[in-house]
Write a structure and sequence with these properties.
Layout (H helix, E strand, L loop, with lengths): L3 E7 L16 E7 L14 E3 L2 E2 L4 E7 L15 E6 L23 E7 L7 E7 L6 E11 L2 E4 L3 E5 L1
Parallel strand pairs: 4-11
Antiparallel strand pairs: 1-2, 2-8, 3-5, 5-8, 6-7, 6-9, 9-10, 9-11
Amino acid sequence: MRSWYAILVLLAAGCYGGAMPHARSSQVTAEYRGAPQACGRARSYAPRLTPREASPGTRVTVAGRFPQYGENGKPGAPTTKLAVWWNLRPERYDTAVSAHPLPDRRGRVLELGAVRVPVPNPCGYRISFRIPDVSPSSYRVVLLGFGGGGFAAFAPVRLTVG
């Protein structure tokens, strides 16, 4: 029931078909769990972050569940890629694929990495990354899920950098 497997993904500069003007980290790791047939409906798809407070360079983890059903209650399109964004304005997540993604607060917007997701989707994910070299403050981390010809944002999580 609790089978985790790890995937280490090294990002290439052309992840979106060309160089983007914002920085990328060199690696992000992902683990997945649960057989798709056994997932059931989750009470929440909001990601969880641990730890919630840390220093630059610390490895943190975002974990959550994949939606197995669309808003209409029928099986939805699978997520094929998850991208982790730092300081992206959640309400304008669509700017992530543009030349000028909008920041949530003053500072840089960074794509920290992206991972491929197995299809059919497992029940849950855990994505780990290192906090970039940023000034002490509170930042939002936004996961973007790609699949079915589009992409959407998961609920943002807040991380305090000290």
